[in-house]
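check these tokens.
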Amino acid sequence: MDSISLSEVTVIGRTHLGFMHSFRQPFSRVPMSPKLCSSRVEGPRAISSSDTNTKSQFAYGERIAATSDSGYKINGVNLKSRTLISSVKERLLLDANDDAYGGVIVDHENLPSNPYAFASMLRASLSDWRKKGKKGVWLKLPVEQSELVPIAIKEGFEYHHAEKGYVMLTYWIPEEEPSMLPANASHQVGVGGFVLNQHKEVLVVQEKYCAPSITGLWKLPTGFINESEEIFSGAVREVKEETGVDTEFSEVIAFRHAHNVAFEKSDLFFICMLRPLSDKIIIDSLEIKAAKWMPLVEFVEQPMIREDKMFKRVIEICEARLSHRYCGLSPHRLVSTFDGKPSSLYYNVVDDDHDPSNSNCNTDFL
């Protein structure tokens, strides 16, 4: 006469009717007893009973029994295959998919809503993944289920990053190996638009909110790149948002790399040359105090610009580009066979005998 061991049926601390609804789905044709469904299993113990034909155990309030003829019963209904036990065990684990690096990604759309059920399933899943030799675990918890975060932290998960609608946690399973999970994004990306018209006037702004040390400074329109946004389109967008002026991207003139800029993150800042397509200024009053077309000579002579070695060099580079003594980088759309996706490769072409249109270094700006 067979019996089902506790190692075959994972038992959580408490049973809740909300979780039982999802637990019973694989057995929708099997009649369930409401009385049994509302029973409790306390701590690591299982309630068991026996008669002349069966030995029984309860998990999540369901009576699972081995019969004398090597079959199984769930709430008194005979099932002849041990497949039932595998199905039960699978229902006690979190839904997850394997990633390409020997780890797993938990399906955040199928997380149990009950914290007690989540805690038990998370512990059982970690044990299962450890036995299978899995490495990293990615656990995305939506803001609607934020009460699950402290449970995961208690089990050893660490914060990776957070967005508006979720927090991402990670867990590295192999204790004898250093974690190979990639860190959170280390950089923020900004752009500045150098827009020069035919009168050699540069488009400048005064920001509404700025440090006291730069109050009154006329500067280039700047801003951050949005998620999945190109550098060139981000520069055009920022100029449009702050000044109302339509522009066309020409080149990346230079970029600055700095560290510990905001919240210990590094910063990449791209200075872009743009051609104006309009000249009427309509400022964004929420963040811009004023904007105007300013003679380049007057712009450069501002004390703060003249005394700043980095910005002075940027202006020198822009002036060199206007006289064809320098050439910036232009985007070229290419598809890599590594991922099959189009991306922008920035480079310059001084002279292309096969296709002169590819050359960006001979272009006049004025």
Observations:
- Confidence is low (pLDDT under 50) at residues 1-67.
- The two ends are 93 Å apart (CA to CA).
